[in-house]
Amino acid sequence: MGKLQAGIIPVTPFQQNCTIFFDDETREGVVVDPGGDVSLIDETIRQNRLTIREIWITHGHIDHAGGADELRELLGVPVIGPHRDDLPLLERLETQAKSFGVTMEARNLVPDRWLEDGDRVSFGAHEFEVYHCPGHSPGHVIFFNRAQSFAHLGDVLFNGSVGRTDLPGGDHETLIASIRDKVLPLGDEVGFLCGHGPGGRIGEERRSNPYLRGL
């Protein structure tokens, strides 16, 4: 087994961090949140000689899931996640673009497997724990690799901010509870990537993120 590596491809007009996790020896990996620009994602996979085993989805917003069905068809791999509470969002991906006022292609999506709190997903020897973290969306999940003290937090927690909760199904108090009860207990030393912008460390967010004061 080689080292776990991560690469980011900014996609869609929202500049969402489509992430590829891969093993630097076997070149096997997964794509997390292919929101769009599928040809760019495919080109990156080919240029880096990667073999993608699965597509993982953190939640059902268009910039994270809009390209998943097309990429599934292109690569012939299953789509895993999010939690089934995001099914209403995934069933309306083709109309979400109009709601956001952007021009981008998207396909409605039904995953091959839903995820529950406490599940585990993996590729090769790299295993991630799944935590259901609603608030930004009802079915949002995050992925935690305990061996590397690393998490993918989607749109739950950002460097200096938190996920927006003014979208359908969003709830600020629920989001903060998810961060308090699921994210912060992972540990201050844990590094993270998120759905937009730079990543960081959980401990730094605990200390300086203005939305987490008093937690």
Give the secondary structure arrangement, pairings included.
Layout: E1 4-11, E2 16-23, E3 28-32, H1 38-47, E4 51-56, H2 62-65, H3 68-75, E5 79-80, H4 87-90, H5 93-100, E6 120-123, E7 126-132, E8 141-145, E9 150-152, E10 157-158, E11 161-162, H6 172-183, E12 191-193, E13 200-201, H7 202-208
Parallel strand pairs: 3-4, 4-5, 9-12
Antiparallel strand pairs: 1-2, 2-3, 6-7, 7-8, 8-9, 10-11, 12-13
Protein structure class? alpha+beta
CA-to-CA gap between the ends?
A: 38 Å
Q: Order of strands across the widest beta sheet?
A: 6-7-8-9-12-13
Average pLDDT metric:
96
Q: What proportion strand?
A: 25-35%
> What's the structural domain tally?
1
| CATH class category label | Alpha Beta
Q: Report the count of strand segments.
A: 13
Main beta sheet: 6 strands, mixed
Assign the CATH topology. Answer: Metallo-beta-lactamase, Chain A
Q: Helical proportion?
A: 10-25%
CATH superfamily: Ribonuclease Z/Hydroxyacylglutathione hydrolase-like
The SSE order reads EEEHEHHEHHEEEEEEHEEH
| CATH architectural grouping | 4-Layer Sandwich
Taken from the alpha-carbon principal axes, the silhouette is globular
Write up what this structure looks like.
With 215 residues, the chain is of the alpha+beta class. It has one domain (4-212): Ribonuclease Z/Hydroxyacylglutathione hydrolase-like (Metallo-beta-lactamase, Chain A). 25% of the residues lie in helices and 27% in strands. The chain has seven helices and 13 strands. The strands form three sheets. It has a six-stranded mixed sheet. Strand 7 (126-132) and strand 8 (141-145) form a beta hairpin. The chain is globular and about 45 Å long. The model has no long low-confidence stretch (mean pLDDT 96).
